[in-house]
Amino acid sequence: MINLETPRKHAGLVDQAHQLAMNMLRPISRKYDRAEHTYPKELDMLAALIDGVSETGATGGAGAGGVRRETSSEEPGTVRNGANLASVLSVAEMCWGDTALLLSMPRQGLGNSAIASVANEEQLERYKGTWAAMAITEPGTGSDSANITTTAVKDGDEYVINGEKIYVTSGERADSVVVWATLDKELGRAAIKSFLVRKDNPGLTVERLEHKLGIRASDTAAITFTDCRVPAEDLLGSPEIDTKSGFAGAMATFDNTRPLVAAMAVGCARASLDLTRDLLEQAGVVIDHDRPPQSQSAAAATFLRLEADWEGAKLLMMQAAWMADNRLPNSLEASMAKAKAGRVGSDVTLSCVQLCGTLGYSEAELLEKWARDSKILDIFEGTQQIQQLIVARRILGLTSAELR
């Protein structure tokens, strides 16, 4: 049975992540928000440190790289607090420091989570050390991943990829890109597969970098693929088209990445709540958790509501990760966590700006930045509306064709 407290085995990792967020990320947060598209060189040392921690195996997982659901020799019914839970807890702490800098860390991209989710054992070994971006969204598809038009045509021992991807996080800095493409448009979503494409591969072109509302320290690119040849061995997972299971293999990636995005929102929102509490107390507003909200000031009552909402998002995030660690199907819970945390993140950060008035809206504090950063966490990896559709389909037992 799940215990929704931070497991003792992960306490050290969570504390280390918080210290890194406070002492390394916070101090350079404003600098790289203003210097959009400038690579934060300070992250090289931090990434090397996380690589070392992960290689020791002492933590059960570190950073945002994502984790694999492994078979286990443990007895049935044994509860595991494994790498998924370690990852979301550490990611939340790092995003307490800065979400964009976390997204900018080498070898910790969302594409790495895709590799961890669907790659076979040989591929996992071969791709060790790569920094992988994730390329799904296209100009004409929006949130409809099943409507992908980028094609991959088999030609001997290679696939030839043609298409365009937009809003690729770390699209310029990463050394490889996990690309979603269809093997046969007539077969629809069942033919969608993911490929690892090296950035130096002929035919791959980074067309531009986007200027954004938030997460400015993270580069977001538009990439085109023109007769881009990829070795057949770089198709992630099985090359077989299974019309019965659809593109469940590709979508399994989201079961790992959506809790991670939820963790980002949880961390960013927690940062806003912590600073807002301090600023309110300095202004003479007392927040008393032992008294009912209606007997306190309007500002204190609002803060207590926001904190309760945040707690719900955190618990859903932990549940989705814990289920993955224990090899339980978590697609429903991953979408619930992403939907709740994405909505709460935006609500909490914007409400904190309002509670703090001029201090919240000006650059005197980081509150306005966190409000800008948090919005993307309700959008990428599936928008709020997409998550609600998925949750409704799962609960009602309906297919995507039956409930649109």
What is the average of the pLDDT values? 90
Looking at how many chains there are and whether they match, the oligomeric state comes to single chain
| Poorly predicted residue ranges | 58-67
Here the CATH topology of the largest domain equals Butyryl-CoA Dehydrogenase, subunit A, domain 3
Helix content: 40-55%
Structural class: alpha+beta
Could you characterize the architecture of this molecule?
The chain is of the alpha+beta class and 404 residues long. It has 12 helices and 7 strands. It is 48% helix and 13% strand. The chain is globular and about 70 Å long. Residues 58-67 have low confidence and may be disordered. The chain folds into 3 domains: 8-126, Butyryl-Coa Dehydrogenase, subunit A, domain 1 (Orthogonal Bundle); 132-234, Butyryl-CoA Dehydrogenase, subunit A, domain 2 (Beta Barrel), CATH 2.40.110.10; 248-396, Butyryl-CoA Dehydrogenase, subunit A, domain 3. A 4-stranded antiparallel beta sheet has the order 2-3-7-6, with no helix packed on it. The protein has a 3-stranded mixed beta sheet with strand order 1-4-5, with helices on one face. A hairpin with a 2-residue loop joins strand 2 and strand 3.
List the helices and strands and how they pair.
Blueprint: H1 8-34, H2 42-56, H3 83-97, H4 99-103, H5 110-118, H6 121-126, E1 132-135, E2 151-155, E3 158-169, E4 176-182, E5 192-198, E6 204-209, E7 220-231, H7 248-282, H8 298-325, H9 331-355, H10 357-361, H11 367-375, H12 384-396
Parallel strand pairs: 1-4
Antiparallel strand pairs: 2-3, 3-7, 4-5, 6-7
Helix pairs in contact: 1-3, 3-7, 3-8, 5-7, 7-8, 7-9, 7-11, 8-9, 9-11, 9-12
Domain Acyl-CoA dehydrogenase/oxidase C-terminal: 245-396
Family: Belongs to the acyl-CoA dehydrogenase family.
Region (Disordered): 59-80
